[in-house]
Design a protein that fits this description.
Blueprint: E1 25-31, E2 34-44, E3 47-54, E4 59-64, E5 74-75, E6 78-82, E7 85-89, E8 92-93, E9 102-106, E10 111-114, E11 127-130, E12 136-140, E13 153-157, H1 164-186, H2 213-234, H3 245-249, H4 254-319, H5 326-401, H6 408-419, H7 423-436, H8 440-445, H9 448-455, H10 460-474, H11 485-490, E14 509-512, E15 517-519, H12 520-526, E16 537-538, E17 541-542, E18 544-546, H13 548-561
Antiparallel strand pairs: 1-2, 2-3, 3-4, 5-8, 6-7, 7-9, 9-10, 11-12, 12-13, 14-15, 14-18, 16-17
Helix pairs in contact: 2-4, 2-5, 4-5, 6-7, 9-10
Length: 562
């Protein structure tokens, strides 16, 4: 007899309770009434665990199991397990209250149920055992409600513990077992127990799959992007033509704030799209790897099925022969069982891979959907900014055209917009104009010193700016604009403004599916020169995403260089 050997010190992750784990239920996990190697179930108080032991690495893995609400505070119950079910009898709680109830736990469904019938008395610390033929449960001894030792023996038939369908499956197993015992007595050899083949039914075979942490993190991040999209979609916007004039023409008004927020969001979108593009590349690789594994499993499954069918036919043929062929028949059953075990493992792996493929495809679809929506939002914000810029330029042009008929508000707009005043300042200017009854004629007669005196400007340059701007409008002189491409070229151009293909400043920057930004015209004409250019396509389409934030930065750079 081999002595016990210490494997590894390990702490069970139990739930918080005033009692420690003791007087608990501890049984092996079974599937189709067969023990699963190195898998165990533990129930005690408010702790339920599936314990898996990795014999190769000598490590334990734990999975939380649901606790019966009625037994959340109970232990010291007797128990038996049979046909993938656990039965608990009696027990007591932290207040030392004993019960006589009977409970049932399904290992397959991971669900609890309570029977209507009970034990003859409240009992704890009793002992339960099955009869040899698994037809009766014997409950022996224990402590009663008065904490007195009981010389009790209760025998219970198992039929009330199972549903009719469950009993039929058990009866079939029992008949096979009886037949095996009979053959053992009649013949000097043992016929192995014939395994049931695993049915490829996803509802019947609820296989546990572990979604990789990377996929979960991707899905969580994509969901964060989705939530951000919802917030942006639900954000209320005020149309420019519905804003107050001071909100439009002041640099801190609602119009300018909306524009600033739109620019901030637009500048953040390329980073989000790049992240989603990287997810797309990663998910695409994962789909290919998992699909390849899935195809290999299907090939193995077909091969094993073919072998099983052959062995099954051979088994039936040998079984009809005389007793002299039984030894060969026995070997065939052993081979058949071995193949069934392999098939079972393959089916489980196949279902896992199939569900993983479904999970990957769902995340990939979700990623594409969110990525497209961000691209649509990007285009929408760019369009809004362009429309608002065009609108404000048009309004300013109309204001300049009618300078000869300006009222006090329009003069306030001219001064506030020219000096880029805040909302409070532009309103202050308006009050001064009304108070001093300044019109177009009096404005044209005011000198720089007069403007300084009336409007309390901090610098003379502000008054000069007003005079110069007003004179230009009066004389209808257009603002001089010169081409500064040469000057810009002489400056140090940021690397991110240059197209990797043409090495020139980008006019229309776009993000490709490899995460790199190109000029649209360059990549449309030269994409074949890019390594692994097929990865830039979705179907037959070269997929590109506009980077309006970068485009705006380039335009500002060129404008400031003039």
């Amino acid at each position: 007899m081999k002595p016990l050997i210490g494997v590894k010190n390990n702490i069970i992750p139990r739930e918080k309770h005033e009692f420690k784990i003791a007087y608990h239920c501890f049984v092996p996990l079974t599937m189709s009434n067969e023990k699963v190697v190195n898998h165990f179930i533990l129930f005690c108080l408010n702790t339920g665990l599936l314990i898996k032991y990795d014999e190769r690495n000598k490590t334990f893995h734990y999975e939380k199991l649901p606790i019966c609400p009625a037994l959340n505070d109970f232990k010291s119950y007797s128990f038996v397990y049979l046909f993938d079910f656990i039965f608990l009898f009696g027990g007591y709680n932290s207040k030392y209250e004993k019960v006589k109830n009977v409970y049932k736990y399904s290992m397959k469904e991971k669900t609890w149920s309570e029977f209507k019938f009970t034990l003859p008395m409240e009992i704890s610390n009793s002992f339960a055992i099955l009869s040899d033929d698994d037809t009766n449960v014997h409950i022996i001894g224990g402590w009663n409600a008065k904490h007195e030792i009981q010389k009790m023996h209760v025998s219970m038939n198992i039929e009330p513990l199972f549903e009719k369908e469950e009993l039929l499956k058990m009866a079939k197993k029992h008949e096979l077992k009886k037949e095996m015992n009979r053959m053992k007595l009649e013949r000097p050899y043992i016929i192995p127990f014939e395994k049931e083949r695993m049915i490829e039914d996803e509802k019947e075979n609820k296989v546990e799959i572990e979604i990789p942490k990377k996929w979960k993190e991707m899905e969580t991040q994509i969901q964060t992007f989705e939530n951000k999209l919802k917030e942006l979609d639900e954000e209320k916007r005020t149309e420019p033509n519905k804003m107050n004039w001071d909100d439009i023409w002041s640099i801190d008004g609602e119009f300018q704030q909306t524009k600033t927020n739109d620019l901030i969001q637009m500048n953040e979108i390329p980073s989000t799209i790049r992240t989603l593009v990287l997810y797309q590349l990663s998910l695409k690789d994962d789909v290919n790897i998992t699909s390849k594994d899935f195809e290999e499993i299907i090939k193995k499954q077909k091969s094993i099925r073919h072998e099983i069918n052959e062995k099954s036919l051979e088994k039936v043929k040998l079984k009809k022969q005389a007793d002299g062929a039984i030894l060969n028949y026995t070997k065939c059953i052993e081979q058949y069982n071995h193949l069934c075990s392999i098939e079972r493992e393959i089916l489980i792996r196949k279902q896992q891979k199939k569900q993983q493929i479904i999970a990957i495809n769902e995340i990939q679809y979700f990623n594409n959907k969110v990525m497209e929506r961000f691209n649509e939002l990007n285009d929408k914000l760019q369009k809004l900014i362009e429309e608002n810029n065009n609108w404000i330029e048009k309004e300013w042009s109309e204001l300049e055209k009618k300078w000869s008929t300006w009222n006090s508000q329009e003069i306030s707009i001219f001064i506030g917009h020219t000096l880029k005043c805040k909302k409070s300042k532009i309103n202050q200017i308006h009050e001064i104009i009304k108070k001093n009854k300044i019109d177009r004629k009096s404005l044209s007669k005011l000198s720089e010193n007069g403007l300084m005196s009336i409007f309390n400007f901090e610098m003379l340059s502000q008054a000069c700016n007003i005079c110069d701007s007003f004179n230009e409008i009066c004389k209808k002189y257009p603002i001089s604009v010169t081409d500064s491409d040469k000057d810009a070229a002489e400056q140090v151009i940021p690397k991110e403004y240059l197209c990797p293909l043409s090495n020139s400043i980008m006019n229309d920057p776009v993000i490709a599916l490899n995460g790199i930004t190109y000029d649209r015209s360059s990549i449309m004409n030269q994409y074949k020169s890019i390594p692994n250019s097929s990865s830039l396509f979705i179907g037959e389409n070269l997929r590109l995403f506009s980077d309006y934030g970068l485009k705006q930065n380039i335009q500002n750079f060129l404008k400031n260089s003039k």
